[in-house]
Amino acid sequence: MGARIISATGVFFVPQLVLSITVFALVAGYLIARIRGELATGEKPWLRTLEPLAEVCAGIGLLGTVSGIVNGLAAGGTAALSSALGLALYTTGFGMAAALLSMIGCWLLGLQDKGKTQ
Hints:
- By secondary structure, the chain is mostly helical.
- It has one domain (about 1-115).
- The protein contains four helices and two strands.
- It has a two-stranded antiparallel sheet.
- Strand 1 (about 110-115) and strand 2 form a beta hairpin.
- Helix 1 crosses helix 4 (about 80-110) and helix 3 packs antiparallel against helix 4 (about 80-110).
């Protein structure tokens, strides 16, 4: 199944997977640093990393879907197109999930500053 997904989405699946893992690690790292009090009051380094990554993840996910649709159309037939489209949507799913995680992480990190709602 993994080889079929990668072949249907082309070069976009691997970068999307790496970005998704990176976003998860960054959100976890920033949350742990925030909980441990290692971030100074008012310091918001996640805004420089997580917000742009959310946009990149969504963009690469959509590019992967477009690539999969093009591959399905090139293969010809509705069965090939529906199969390629179903597999290509994995990159969109990864992209949207990573973007959502990034946005929720920014929101959670910005919610509290030394116990006070911002």
